[in-house]
Amino acid sequence: MKFMLIRRADANTENGAMPSQEMFAAMAAYNQRMTEAGVFLSGDGLHPTSDGCLIRFKNGEPTIIPGPLSPASERIAGYSVLEAPSLQAAIEWAQQWPTQDADGNVTLELRRYFSLEDFEPGAGIEQHRNLARVPDAMNVHVAFPGTCREAMQFYADVTGGHLECLLTYADTPAAEHTPPALHDRIIHASLNLRGRRLMGADMAADCYTPPQGIEVQLEYQDIEQAARTFAQLAEGGKMIMPFEATFWSPGFGMTVDRFGVGWMVNVPSDNCPLATEGDSP
């Protein structure tokens, strides 16, 4: 079951008072305990209502009511999303809320999320089920013949992305089932690019197949940055299409880098309209 644990606002939060470092540390420790228990899904604090507004509809017409909003005790200062097997289990976690918050004088509200199973079947529910089919993220995974570490560090340098993981076979239970020669190779690498990830792993020689028929696409608004990135990726690789203006883009190029990975670098434009069914050729 999914629950929202709501931290009600008070005079301090509505006045924009920031938590102390002690409170930050206590909250981080609390969230860490819940994360390790598989309970914590997400959580955020909110700016005071003076930075927001109410949007109230009457007969379908919206009226904007700017903040601050009162009374403070009916407002939300933050929330955590929890996954727990029962209401009682969620309550037990809520009771462990850090006492450093407002010297232990806070009001929490615990509410269970609806799930689709709570509603009668119907067309509207099926629309929501279709939305649920959309993945939370789409990432790219590339195989390497032993060059994963070098390649991912190169991609991090080129793109400025955050190389958040380089895990070797030796660091996992897989070490028991792989030859010693593979132990220093990478079993999982992850490069974070604005929340999207380029992932990779080294494969044994008899399992590795060079990528075919697929490219990693990078998009830039800045044509000069796009050109620099393309030049770095193309160096030592195989040029497929030089970076230049096309009928659909002011800058586009294709290359296979020196690690055997294909890339497209593109600058978007408005010159690529969607085709409409029934349009004449």
UniProtKB/TrEMBL annotation:
Residues 140-265 form the PhnB-like domain. InterPro entries: Dimeric_a/b-barrel, Glyas_Bleomycin-R_OHBP_Dase, PhnB-like, YCII. CDD domains: PhnB_like. Gene3D superfamilies: 2,3-Dihydroxybiphenyl 1,2-Dioxygenase, domain 1 (3.10.180.10), Dimeric alpha+beta barrel (3.30.70.1060). Residues 1-102 form the YCII-related domain. Belongs to the YciI family. This is Uncharacterized protein. It comes from Vreelandella titanicae.
